[in-house]
User: Fold Helix-hairpin-helix domain-containing protein from Guptibacillus hwajinpoensis.
Amino acid sequence: MSKSITSKGKIWELGNSIWMLWALLTLGFLNYISFFYIASRVKQKKWTKAGFIYSVPFILLIVTSGVSNDHWITDVTVAIYLISYIISIIHVFKIRPEYLLRLQEIQKNPDRYESLKKEIQTEYHSNSSSEPKVLSNVRQETSIVETPIASVEENNKIIDLNRATVHELTEVPHFGGIFAKKAVMLREEKGGFSSYNDFTESMNLKPHIAEKIRPYLKVSNKERPSKEEKTTGRIVDY
Assistant:
């Protein structure tokens, strides 16, 4: 049985994933509605743009409906439409965890809505200045808040991923509040990270993001009781 993505549980997550049906059950005719819907719920520009992109094949299909079925334009349009439909299905499954985490954050802290908007804008700008993205690659591996690096370097503070609090993780450059909470949640589920690679794989971080934050993080060994601690009672001489 798969683990919950958020702290609210499976039922809440399933109830807030109904939007995926627009992409899954409409054969591509209304898949773009899924992206417009979640973009409006958590104020994500990238998902609004995705919605417009996925609406283009449908518009082309309508525009070319009067063209003969034997014409090459019809074949190309249908091919684009089918490919777009398949990609949109993959896309909604990939962005579902990020959407649920953002929605939970907004519902839990409604007073922080404006602050979250600024964090999202920061992430959007940092993403646009980095390497180009494939349409289906909309995961949360980039930072939400850019924390001043100088303050961390001055204190020469390296955060232990197996002991840090959410607040401590948010002070790490290129590591935002939402992902700090996710890291702590994953750590509790796993009983601690076994290595830095275990952490990056669990968080689905891109290599260049993992390298950026690596100097500020460390993973301590999971504590195991020593043989002396396991031994109880006393030795009786006969």
Summary: The mean pLDDT is 77.
